[in-house]
Amino acid sequence: MALPVPGSPAASWAVYRQKLITALEGQNPRVLIAFWLFGLINNVLYVIILTSALDLIGPLPKALILLPDILPGFLCKLIAPYFIHHFPYSLRVLICVSLSSTGMLLIAVSPPSHNPVSIAVKLLGIMMASLSSGGGELTFLALTHFYGKGSLAMWSSGTGGAGIVGAGAYALATVTIGMSSRTALLVFATLPAVMFVSFFLILPRDALETSSDLRQRLDSGQDESTEEQEAFLPSHSPSHDDDDEHGISQIDISTALTASASSITPLTSKPLHWTATLHSHLQRARSLFLPYMLPLLLVYISEYTINTALFPVLLFPPHSPRTPFTHLRSHYPTYSTLYQTGVFLSRSSLPFLRIRSLYAPTALQSLNFLVLLLHALYDFLPSFWYVAPIVFWEGLLGGLVYVSTFARIAEEVPRGEREFSLAATSVSDSGGILVSALVSMVLEVAVCEWQVSQGRRWCRMVKPAG
Predict the structure, then answer these.
(1) 48 and 185 in contact (C-beta within 8 Å)?
(2) CA 168, 317, 377 angle in degrees (round to 5)?
(3) Is 317 helix (H, G, I), strand (E, B) or coil?
(4) CA–CA separation, 218 vs 209, rounded Å?
(5) Which residues cross the membrane (predicted)?
(6) CATH number for the domain harbouring residue 314
């Protein structure tokens, strides 16, 4: 990947601004707004739950929150792509809104104590929100297939924005304003309504409804006229021109990102038996593993092990020159906000930056994990200000791999397989988070005990907000 030299004409803001204008040129603003809000709301509750982990379960391992926050969504992404196409998008959205709202209310209204009953109720609410987030991600990623260029870019940017909004808003509410965690969670429980408004009122659904009508007629075995089917054929196929001297394809990335509704190509006018369809999907999923799914899986294992096992123990003594904070608990939400800021910036970089190798940033993420783990054990970084940029860099790498993975799928996978491929690959990030949760259950406790044995008792002195 060739990057423009800093300070060169290719690196100027005018060039970047023109690339953004070109990428979004001719797009319906309602589509762009709707997909940005889809990404924002679908992920924001997940981020809020992780950021509030310290306040929800106190001294227990934070992976106890991460595990129910990811496992239902992971199972949904693993299984649902093989049958979810039988359910209309409108029903999927209604289910996601209902599950996420109910789950957040359960978390917020459960007693603030850390007794087993209270924690069980909170975990039930977290699992409902997780199921909604997993179903929402594979739904909206698949939905980008039916809309014009830019929908995937806006979805990715929205998911990155969810990190800043979620982590930043919770830190602002509980650290700066001084709200109780319960009050803050009650306020955030209203956010799923935005997803409802985005789908039913903001998003133009003509393209989706037209495509669904054609699919239903094809599934029922009705023949279509040649003229009608030609209306659903792609008007052109994206070529794979060599990158120009600045690493940007001569064909605009957003043109190749998603197929519009007019790109749906009916492969046959006769329905396939469900076993044949399942076998076809499994074959497609196997071909996605090495180039797309594995690097996404590995980068998420590294970064979420950092977030869950190491953030709670990357502490510095309050009221000292080593940290700007007067309370130990302020470190955790601040790290989350820094990480999510990096994620947002990199997930919003699609119109400007492309990477071909997904494994290089994955290796760098593993290096981040190693450096922060060694610091948690041996305390060699002088202050918070040395940890902060590493956490920010961690977010940049994770977001870059995420958006680049789905951009490459949208570029390289044939149009007829793209909707399934986008949805199926989304299981990789959840799989990585699931593995990291299992590792973190042990690692956080082990690192904390090591720190205490070395005379650094800060991880035992953190007090959650009320």
Answers:
(1) yes
(2) 90
(3) coil
(4) 14
(5) 33-57, 64-84, 90-109, 121-146, 152-172, 184-203, 292-316, 384-403
(6) 1.20.1250.20
Q: Is 325 left (phi over 0), alpha (psi -120 to 50) or beta?
A: beta
Q: pLDDT tens digits, residue range 395-437?
A: 999 999 988 998 888 888 888 777 778 778 888 888 898 899 8
Decide if 20 contacts 353 (C-beta within 8 A).
Answer: no
Phi, psi of 345 (to 5 degrees): -65, -45
460 neighbors 452 (Cβ within 8 angstroms) = yes
Full residue range of the structural domain in which residue 163 is found: 23-460
Question: What residues does 243 pair with on adjacent strands?
Answer: 249
**Would residue 1 count as lying in a domain?**
no
- Report d(CA 237, CA 255) in Å as an integer: 10
Question: What's the angle, vertex CA 341, arms to CA 339 and CA 342, rounded to 5?
Answer: 70
Say if 108 falls within a structural domain.
Answer: yes
Paired residues of 249 in beta bridges: 243
In a domain, 195, yes or no: yes
In a domain, 248, yes or no: yes
Handedness of CA 379, 381, 387, 390 (dihedral sign): negative
Give the tens place of pLDDT for each residue, 311-343.
999 999 988 999 998 888 889 878 988 998 898
SS3 (DSSP) at 175: helix
pLDDT of 305 > 80? The answer is yes
pTM of model > 0.70: no
Helix, strand, coil shares, percent, the chain, to 5 = 75, 0, 25
Q: What are phi and psi of 243, to 5 degrees?
A: -65, 150
b/e map 262-281, b = 16+ CB within 10 Å: bbbeeeeeeeeeeeeeeeeb
Task: Give the separation between CA 291 and CA 315, rounded to whole angstroms.
Answer: 37
Closest CA to 331 of 284, 289, 288, 387: 387
State both tokens at 297. Answer: 């899986």
Q: Crossing angle, helix 359-378 and helix 427-453, to 10 degrees?
A: 20
Q: How far apart are CA 300 and CA 435, in angstroms?
A: 9
Task: Please count the structural domains in the chain.
Answer: 1
C-alpha–C-alpha distance, residues 259 and 261, integer Å: 7
Establish how many alpha carbons lie within 13 A of residue 164's alpha carbon, considering only the half-sphere containing its beta carbon.
15
Name the residue with tokens 């369809």: 277
As a whole number of angstroms, the distance between CA 187 and CA 180 comes to 11
The pair of structure tokens assigned to 263 is 């790109």
